[in-house]
Amino acid sequence: MTLAPFPDGWRTATVIVAHPDDIEWGIAGAVAAWTATGKEVSYVLVTAGEAGIDSLPPAEARPAREAEERASGAIVGVSAIEFLGHPDGRVVEGVDLRRDIAAAIRRHQPDVVVAQHFGEHWGSEPGAGWNSSDHRAVGRSTMDAVADAANRWIFPDLAEEPWAGVQWIAVPDDPSRATHAVDVSGIGDTAVRSLVAHEQYLRGLGVEDPVAFATAMLDGRAALIAARFGGRRAVGFELIRGPAAPET
Predict the structure, then answer these.
(1) Is residue 247, in this structure, part of any structural domain at all?
(2) Mind listing the pLDDT tens digit for each residue in 202-247?
(3) Strands, E, within 120-244: which ranges?
(4) In terms of CB atoms within 10 Å, which end of the chain has fewer, N or C?
(5) Calpha distance 61→238 (Å, rounded)
(6) 3-state DSSP assignment of residue 23
(7) Is residue 91 packed enough to be buried (19+ CB in 10 Å), middle (13-18) or exposed (0-12)?
(8) Which of 29, 25, 34 is nearest to 184 (CA)?
(9) Residue 134 and residue 67: Cα distance in Å, rounded?
(10) Which residue has the higher pLDDT, 57 or 131?
């Protein structure tokens, strides 16, 4: 199926993920393309990824990973970055998580919410890797929290005013389910540099040449989408209508 261009009638987006680096494995290219055209993007990280580096205890990894995410965000034009403080590796899908994400959506008031891929597997091909429990919990809770953020009676204890202005929820990372794409052919190596900014994390994964690693990985992902987007390098999303979706 040929992918449609990502809608353009919006101004602000909030990307909601579990860990520092989750955005940089593919979404950051789209973020760079958006901010280059004047759109405002904010990040919400449910954890600080403090359990993600085997050689660093969580108390040391937390500030290091937060700093890497802030540096990475700056490369693609994002300065509004917040961490919700849930425990890395032990995020629980449920009412408490939905409340925290709904509150964040109300604070940022986005037109577009980018939710984490929450499928059980990475992709739909046989033998695809198992998705992280944190990713599944955050992605599913984000989908529910968009509606929660719009309804003042679900979490009446929240100080933030309801926000029903989300037009679209965009879910990345599964090319087989993508419906729309963001052209990233004009952003150069920005997405690569944003991933390379996670220096300590990549080193903890045993990556010896971060630039070559990031370039090969991101090029491969972009090529999968390009085949369905007129040969243009792109980031794919499954687009789901939000409470304020424009009439078609």
Answers:
(1) no
(2) 999 999 999 999 999 999 888 889 989 999 999 999 999 999 998 7
(3) 168-172, 180-183, 234-241
(4) C
(5) 33
(6) helix
(7) buried
(8) 29
(9) 21
(10) 57
Distances (CA, A) of 186 to 29, 70, 72, 183, 247: 10, 23, 19, 8, 30
Q: Is 53 left (phi over 0), alpha (psi -120 to 50) or beta?
A: beta
Tell me the pLDDT tens digit for each residue of 155-212: 999 999 999 999 999 999 777 789 999 999 989 899 999 999 999 999 999 999 999 9
Q: Which residue has the higher pLDDT, 119 or 177?
A: 177
Strands (E), 85-155: 112-115
- Tell me, rounded to whole angstroms, the distance of Cα 209 from its chain centroid: 24
Establish if 29 belongs to a structural domain: yes
Q: What is the CATH number of the domain that holds 138?
A: 3.40.50.10320
Domain that holds residue 174: 4-241
Would 246 be classed as within a structural domain? no
- Provide the domain count of the chain: 1
Q: Which helix (H) or strand (E) holds 123?
A: none
- Pairing between strand 168-172 and 234-241? antiparallel
> Residue 121: inside a domain, yes or no?
yes
β-partners of residue 223 are none
Torsion on CA atoms 83, 85, 90, 94, rounded to nearest 10: -90
What does pLDDT average to over the chain? 93
For residue range 54-65, what is the model confidence (pLDDT) as tens digits? 999 999 999 999
